[in-house]
Specification:
The chain has about 240 residues and is α+β, with helices and mostly antiparallel strands. About 35% of the residues lie in helices and about 20% in strands. The longest helix is centred in the N-terminal third of the chain and has 52 residues.
Amino acid sequence: MNVKVSNKVSKSVKSTIIKITAKKLSEKLLKQKEAGYSLTELTLIVLVVGILAAIATPGWLAFTNNYRLRTSTDRIYQAMFTARRNAMRDKTAWQASFQETTNIFGQPVIRYALHKPAIAPKDLPTSSWKYLEPGIEIDDNGTNDKGNYETTLRIVKPDTNTVTKNKTDPIYRALFNYKGCPVYNPTNQCTQTSLQAKGRIAIKHQNQDKPKRCVIISTLLGAMRTGQDHEKAEKSTGKYCY
């Protein structure tokens, strides 16, 4: 009988000790949770995050800018390719028109439209224009150190679609005749074209002079290719983007 009583007392004591220990441990953890981080710990965390952000930001911006540049180059190529294809399909001249403008945030942005040359760019409905990536601009502000412009597509007047040398708010045109040849006038035959009719358009990011990318009409039959910046100018053209 005494042994049974002793065992009950022992179990009761153990249970009481476990409960007290668990309660104290719970209260300790709760106090630590409520205490949070110290000022020193918070300062260290903020410092580490700031350092990581400073390291990552330039790389991320460069990646974003290059992505926008590549995407815009591809879309310019597709626009010119589609204009040439439409000309061969419809057996009549088509053109791709490119104009640099600004978006609502004041960033440069290139818009483009595909249309028949009988319709002047100014007369195109707003829905005809599509926009490239923001921050991308046409490289046409000056010549390179070889004295050549990287962008050589013909400039046309917005209201008449006739060729001009006036670079005030220019519209650049890639014009293809019914056989897909780059031409000066819509009715010109492939045999009437010239080397100047080939042309190219170079683009860059507004915050980076380099790298540049370009779309080039490389043959008198209308073949096209994309290019990028090089350290040395191409001997035959004096251009750095090829």
